Amino acid sequence: MSHAMTEAALRGWMQRLGPKLIALSAGICRDHHRAEEIVQEAFVKLWRQPPDVGEVAYASWLRRVVTNLSINALQRTKRPQALPEFSDDRSLSHASHTGEASDVREELDRVSAAMDRLDPAKRAILMLRAHEQLSYEEIAAHLDVPVGTVMSRLNRARTALMEEMKRDVREDANEAQVFEFRKYKQA
Amino acid sequence: MQTMDCTDIKALLSPYLDDELDAESRHLMERHLGTCASCRSFVDEAERLDGLLLLDAEQRTQSTSLSPEFIGAVMSRTVYADPPSRLGSLWINWAGWTAAAAALTLAALLWVQERSQPLPVQMAGIPTITLETPEETVPRTVRTLSYATGAGLRSQTYDGVMPIEQILGVSLRHDAAMMAANDVSVAAAAEEPVVQPSTTLIIARPVIAREDAETFYATSLVLEALADADLDSFADVERVRRITEFDELLPRLHQARYRVDAADRPAVLAAESLLVRVVQGPINADDVRILRDTVAQLQLSEEMGEMSLRWSAPSS
Question: Do B86 and A41 touch, CB atoms closer than 8 A?
Fold first, then answer.
């Protein structure tokens, strides 16, 4: 039996889709190292048993595999969802930014921290929409649920993320108050 | 006339933001948003968050790149997964002088051998041919070469000439993938040995792509720079490393190695070995000297230049 994929083709797929898939997986499982392993696994699957969907659909097949593996990886190991280094490493790497750029950076760090606290399924659906820019029908096909479910899940995920962001602001405000109070006491 | 209240707005937030609402619902929603400040600010906030998520996604993708280890890990579980499986990863992770020196010595040795004993048949442009040759004219097998370099299975099957037993002993799955990639077919790669063991099977090389000639030319320039490297600074070696990486010379040479005639292969291998050493580092002053002297002694730059001329006009 002949194999359907050549080494050159596999390399091509990795170069073209690898970085985007790693970013997608990392967005869901919040762990860059784990994300790389997951995407490697997906490419190994692609090689061993290329889906019977034709090459045009490989990208969406890989995305689906990566999404599922990323969600499952967290559920299987039951490790803490938010790995501190994932949100922190970016704030460190951009610590030198100033002015407007640093405002955006701060905002992005807050979004990232809020995403850390969401459950993986909510993160996954937000990533598929925001990161992959998939339509509702495509997301429905991906997750194997009706379009109506996508709509409500996405709504819940967005609202939850907004809540997390607000909580973040509230906690910041509390911390600031405590700090002011201590300063006052010391004075 | 229908209207919407604040609960409807919250329920339809996502389809509204994602432009998945029908025209009528959108119209109703916008009418409500025009009059309700609280819903307006809720939707604005969600929209801003969407923008941030998109920006975050873009930045993550841009800052993510594939490491050589990533590709190596996948290759060792796929292309090089059949025995000898470790060779694929060995090639990718290959570092240090021991391996480089061994391969280089072997390459130089084979090079000399090949050049003094040219292959009996001119293979250019012939897709597939079988012919009778006495056992003793069968060149030494490529098995040794591929094992020593960690290049994996491909060079066992895709060599100019080798005994039929070896072809049949190699996984047909790899044959098919490799041959499809290189537009090569083999008459005898059947389940049943249709050719007698005394027959030599020749897999002709496909017409060499022009890119290979360009690869050899680029390599010859890089090697020339290496041969002239200043011993008192690392600047020249660093420049060679950058050009090698920027031009992706290593993967290009790796690909070209399987396409050239067996006689040219050791030269490609030698160039690869040296450039792998440069790229992988770390390099000290002694290393610079060894690299410089090796390139000069083997006259690798000149050889690569000559090959580039030869391969750019394969018919001549």
Answer: no
Residues of chain A in contact with residue B64, where contact means CB-CB under 8 angstroms, are: 19-20, 22-23, 26
* Sheet architecture: strand order including B128-132: B128-132, B199-203, B161-163
| DSSP string for residues in B197-228 | TTEEEEEPPPPPPHHHHHHHHHHHHHHHHHHT
Tell me the torsion sign for CA atoms B157, B159, B160, B161: negative
Q: Smallest CA–CA separation between A182 and chain B, in Å?
A: 33
pLDDT digits (tens, 9 = 90+) for B278-308: 888 777 778 888 888 888 888 899 999 988 8
Residue among A36, A47, A111 minimizing CB distance to B49: A111
Structure tokens at B47: 């929209």
Q: Are strands B199-203 and B161-163 parallel, antiparallel or unpaired?
A: antiparallel
Residue A77 has a pLDDT of 54
Contact A10 B78 (CB under 8 A): yes
Closest to A137 (Cα-Cα) out of A122, A153, A152, A148: A148
Does residue B146 register a pLDDT over 50? no
Handedness of CA B39, B40, B41, B47 (dihedral sign): positive
Q: Residue B268 and residue A78: Cα distance in Å, rounded?
A: 50
Q: What would the mean pLDDT of A21-44 be, rounded to a whole number? A: 90
Please indicate if any CB of chain B lies within 8 Å of the CB of A15. Answer: yes
| Residue of chain A with shortest Cα separation from B88 | A7
pLDDT per position as a tens digit, B242-288: 888 888 889 889 888 877 777 888 889 889 888 988 888 777 778 88
Pairing of strands B128-132, B161-163: unpaired
Give the ipTM of the model, two decimals please. Answer: 0.76
CA atoms of B55 and B49, how far apart (whole Å): 10
B105, amino acid identity: T
Residues of chain A with Cβ-Cβ distance to B73 below 8 Å are 40
Q: Which residues of A touch B79 (CB under 8 A)?
A: 7, 10, 47
Alpha-carbon dihedral angle through residues B154, B160, B165, B167, given to the nearest 10 degrees? 30
Predicted TM-score (pTM) above 0.80: no
